[in-house]
Amino acid sequence: MEKRKDGFLINRDENPKDYIFGIRPILEAFHAGQEIDKLLVNKELKGDLLKEVVTLAREKNVPITKVPENKLNRITRKNHQGVIAYMGAISYASWENVVDACYNKGQAPLILLLDRITDVRNFGAIARTAEVAGVHGIIIPEKSSAQISSDAVKTSAGALNFLPVSRVRNLYYTLKDLKKLGLNVVGVTEKTHRNIYQADFTAPTALVMGSEEDGISDELLGLCDEFVKIPVLGQVASLNVSVAAGVAIYEAIRQRSVPDPQV
Length: 263
What we know:
263 residues; alpha/beta; CATH 3.30.1330.30; Alpha/beta knot; 2 domains; 6-stranded parallel sheet; 4-stranded mixed sheet; 9 helices; elongated; disordered N terminus; methyltransferase; 23S rRNA (Guanosine(2251)-2'-O)-methyltransferase RlmB
């Protein structure tokens, strides 16, 4: 945050190109089919036009957060009319289509689920590694996830323009559906004694990475078919999540690249 001469606080991390404001411009953006990442609405605001904005947002599964007016004022001093929409820097994919495409090609899906990864730079770095390694897609939750802004695309070195990213309302139910489709759910966590190099990543796999603060949430841990950890030999207790994701992804790729001895 930075303080202006008039004493007002402004968030210098916000890029004006990443958001639009005002009820009618946002309505026009929805009707034009533009990708909207999330909506911030003044919690005191009411009216028919606002109801239309909210209805469209819900129809398109755009997360809505009700906030005090001063939160909106910190983003812009212009006439936002109580509504700010963050524009999506990418078009989201259907994870079902991604998995189906893999099976149709005779490939074993390798899908990465990110549980509450909120740092844009970490997310971008993970996406870059995933795309380079040939991961088939990333799944993130609508809420408690890094915003996929122009900064995220830049950090990913453009990988987010090529890597399918799916945004879902609830990771728990999505993970259950992935299991029904035959994917083995592998959670990377410190809460196990099993080494990551002991896991079998050649099967259809959903790889779960958790937040740096507290790892994978308990409800998602309950759905994992197996748990693995990355060996820590030094004095520092853990790796940055983007580095940990890279280690896990490339172990999966290494296993999938080993020639079949029977061939």
